[in-house]
Amino acid sequence: MSDKSDNKSIFIITGEQSGDSNAALLIKDIIKSNPDTNIYGIGGNELESAGMKLLYNYREVNFIGLYSVITNLKGIKNILNKCVEFVKSKSPDLVILVDFPSFNLKFAEEIKKFYKGKIIYYISPQIWVWNTKRVEKIKKYIDRMLVIYPFEVDFYKSYGVDVDYVGNPLLIKIENYLKNHKRIKSGKKLITLLPGSRDEEFRRNLISLEGAIEKLRQSFNPDIFLLLSPNIDYEKYKDIITKNKIKIQKYSEEEKYNLILNSDVVITKFGTSSTECAFLETPFLTIYKANLFNYYIAKLLVKVKYATLINIIANKSIVQELIQNDLKTENICNEIEKIINDDNYRENMINEFKNIKKLLSEYPVKKTAVEIINEYLFSN
Fold first, then answer.
1. Torsional sign, CA 97, 377, 380, 159
2. Which of 70, 172, 295, 356 could form a disulfide with 290 if both were Cys (CB 3.0 to 4.6 A apart)?
3. Domains (ranges, CATH) in the chain?
């Protein structure tokens, strides 16, 4: 191979926790079929545990909000340039990019100037939400899109991009989890908070929930749990958490799923955690509070009616979205009370989740991601 051995090599970049988890499942399958494959790149603990040589942790390049990106731009550019140089010197057999478009598309553009191998994008960035102009870059620099939602196939085909639906790794993972775990009934109501895994979004979302937490205690006297991401410094938020009598669950994937599964309702930011709630068939509402500058920029860029993926797939409002000025104590409490007290409303929401899971599981997968990747690796 091109990195001075006969083994195949892959360079991977992922920029967040969910991408790290999904990419780890992918490379486990790659290594299972090709044990001598060398895998390098940017990722997190799960990719490293799965067998990837970590050049950089994704936390070094992933910052939320324009201000944070600008203040860390020099470091981000430095890592991007070093990754470009790595690909130039090692010439891996394949490059796989996972979501994280602001970094990955720039990286693809730079290596396309010299790299002769194929560039695969596994798990599409949500450009159909934020910035459809990026599809032109994908068409120019990416050889194949491997997507995990059926509607993405039609989207990319309409732009002439080579695309395959390869199944949904999150749904597969959760269905396997559900085979061995059942919902446990409790005498007390259980409300779980998933305000985010990055400091800025965590802080804004958690502070926005304080009034609702107090009112919900008066209405239901529930247990209120907060899943604490390893990216969040507990000491920084200890006073808020203690004052509001919130119970902490430290992060592990199984504990996260246990907590969501056994909750009566979850309050979560939109993103992967909201999809996990839907796949676990637990009613939820999505929230988000951004600084005003980022919010107005997002309003200018957004291309769809909804922010929550379940609503986007269904093209209707299945779960309530409380964003920015709508994120008020009254609105939060009204929705939670409706979910808990109105059996029909709750069951209809759960049935909608089941319909979406059925759609994803029954949509034909002609080839899996690993099968397609192996075809590229061993085509010569």
1. negative
2. 295
3. 9-167+364-377 (3.40.50.2000), 178-361 (3.40.50.2000)
